[in-house]
Amino acid sequence: MCGIAGALFYNPQTGRPEIIKNMCDAMAHRGPDDAGYLYGEFNGKDDRWRISEFTDVEFAHKNHRPAWSGGDAGKALASIPCRVMLGHRRLAILDLSADGHQPMTNENRTLWLLHNGEIYNHQTLRALLEEKEIVFRSHTDTEVILRLWDEYGIDCLKHLKGMYAFSVLDLKQQKLFLVRDRFGIKPLYYFRHPHGIVFASEIKGILASGLAERKIDEASLAEYFTFQNIFSDGTLFQGIKMLMPGEYLEIDLWDPSNVRKVAYWKPHFSVSDLSFKKTSSRLGEVFEDTVRRHLVSDVEVGSFLSGGMDSGAIVAVMRGMIPHLSTFTVGFDLTHVTGIEQGFDERDQSEVLANLFQTEHYEAVLHSGDMPRAMERLTWFLDDPRVGMCHPNWYASKLASRFVKVCLSGTGGDELFGGYPWRYGFANAPSVEAFDQQYFLYWHRLIGPSEFTKFFNADAVKIDHQSMLWEQYCRIMADAPRENESLDLASNLLNRAFYFELKTFLHGLLIVEDRMSMAHSMETRVPFLDDTLGELALAMKPNYKVKPDRAQHDLKGGKTILRSAMKHYLPAKFVRQKKKGFSPPDENWYRGPSMEYIKEILLDPKTRARPFLNSRFVEEKLHEHFTGRQNNRLLIWSLLCFEWLQRHFIDEKMPASGLRGLNGKVALLSTETPKQE
To answer: 103: cis peptide before it, omega within 30°?
Structure first.
């Protein structure tokens, strides 16, 4: 788990050497254990690439690279007109030695790899490569990707099972590749500017390059305040795109018009003919193998334990493999909390499971003042706000990171196995078209169609919002299940709903989970999104997960097949209990102790002067919530995130430009050119 960054300049005279250092410094929390920087330029005189490597001063004694600044190294660096720059911040999980340093290269230095994530079948792949007499220098999964690429090129993606975002500088093909895993567990962003392209694990890394103008993208803003998510590949920052799950980008090092995006994987909902009993048995076997693979590590591994079935089952399997297992729970102070939110604290259930499995259990209790206390720092690390409220995730990761460097999570169990029965009543629609119309409106989580023109200032957000939003929905659903002849209409529509959740809601959760854990330099792993387990789930009959005729009416329903498989690991009451979300009692807190903070931020003259939102209408929505007329907690959270995002990344002074002076006016610290080694 790491932070990666890179830049390609089609005119190598334009890139300043500090750009990659600035990008990695902005993401130093993702990798406090090492840093590496590569500068590459093609020497036309002898038809060779010249590669220079550097590190930070504090790591030079470990990885034996020259320090980035100072002395001869600094002079050499300043004199290189770089076409390609790569940067890496390492969180050491496998092979803690300097052999895991990145960028990592092969023997003839024609491949250079940056990797963020974990390959869970790397030991199997290593054995297969060793049979081909391929020799390894490290025990990392990163080197397995490198050797696979050397052997198979882009086709190596067929062999990888894990979570990953990586970049390959392939000097044999004269191309740069950016790759993201199938489910989108690890993030990767890019920005195309007039002189080339930059990419990074986080948006703030790209902003630190100084190449992207800090402007809000109005189309993405409309998506966010409609869906509390962004369905397209855009972000709230103009021009900054996200590489989507299951995609790779192929970039020619010489031709700026030759950039190709390829979807190498899409979720395919097939229908297995296995019986319910055999499917349940197979699911249990795969689940156990999956958790075992996710424990590979050279540092201590723990698990979140919410008190629900998914994390409980993970802990049950882990407990048989890790003698002294640490588990972590965040609960909520429910003093003065009324209504449905009185049931939001799951500490009692998690304590029962911790006692049952004899884990070393740690808890944190959140109070109403903890959201305001974390918000400023949290939103800087978040930089790409998506679904839900994430300050509980922030505190959960903060707690766990005090004891472990890797933590397993139950994320994905609901999305793969139908864990939201109240969402699936739309499967009773009379047609696909009727389903889509209803489901599209259902996912308007924040602002409805009738409120759009009241919420946004027309002068700042000049888009045909409903047409644009509907087009985004249709784009997502273009490859969704539609008419499988072996299923009835309701079952087809269930699969259509599962597909949508997988592509949108789950993706948003994963982005947030990555940010909150990496903010505390901790890796979160999600066994339910293992490739083998995921493919098994996609092939199941939808009525093994949710009964179409009971959808929405039985809140204890959903995840039928998973409950059947998990009964071998958990007490019956944990398998049968209805779904609860990991959510704080913010409806109450926002009307009580947090109200003054919300007013302080959202009614501040600085906030009200922003161009995008109608401040009077925002004030009306706040008043609705404060007086108990409407529960607007999701909207209030999103408004706070958007305001803090602007304070962090729009208001702050931009860093020095990532470009050297143009028209031949290149500012160099030295005119000396290092000798080719």
So the answer is: yes
